[in-house]
Amino acid sequence: MSRILLVDDEPNMLSALQRALRQSKPLAGAQIETFTNPFDALNRICVCEFDLVVSDFMMPEMSGGEFLQALKDVAPTTVRIMLSASTDFKTAMAAINDAHVFRFIPKPWQQSELEQNILRGLEERQRLLEEAGHAPSAQDLEAQRLEEEEPGLLHVKRSDDGSVIL
C-alpha cells in the first residue's frame, strides 16, 4: 500500500487534491496524509516513511522548493512532486533542480495528468528503493499486507514465562 503526503498552505486546495487521489482507481487503497504547514509535514516525515510527497510551490512559512530540499535530505528515496499556479518558472526550475523534483504539475491540474504522474512517481520510488538495496522482499510485502488486514496479527506479546498475552 502506497503512502502519499500532500502539503499545501491552502486547506481547500489540499481537500481537492486529496479528493482527486481518492477518486483514482489505480491509487485505491493509498494512505494519504495532508498538512498545511511544511514544518509539521517534515516532522511527520521524520517519524513515518512516505513513498511520495506532493507539495505546493508557493507557501508562506517555507517555499515548496525549500521544503522539498529539506525532504530530500531527510528522506532521499521519497519521490518529490511539485504543484504550482506560479508563472515564475525560473524560480520553480531552480527549486526542481536543487530538490531533484521528479515532476512539476501546474495548477489547476488535469485529473489524468495528476494520476499518471503520481503512478510514475510510485514506480520511480520502487526503482530508487531497489537501487539503494531497500526494496522489500515478497515475504515483507505479504507480512505488511497481513498486518494491514489484521492489525496485531504479526506482533505477539509474551510474558516473562513465554506465555502469550492477549
TrEMBL record:
Domain Response regulatory, residue spans: 3-122
Alphabetized UniProt keyword annotations: Phosphoprotein
GO biological process: phosphorelay signal transduction system
PROSITE patterns linked: RESPONSE_REGULATORY (PS50110)
Residues with 4-aspartylphosphate modification: 56
SMART domains: REC (SM00448)
Pfam families: Response_reg (PF00072)
Coiled-coil stretches: none
InterPro entries given in the database record: Bact_response_regulator, CheY-like_superfamily, Sig_transdc_resp-reg_receiver
Bias-annotated ranges (Basic and acidic residues): 157-166
Region (Disordered): 147-166
Protein name according to UniProt: Response regulator
Phylogenetic placement of the source organism: Bacteria, Pseudomonadati, Pseudomonadota, Betaproteobacteria, Burkholderiales
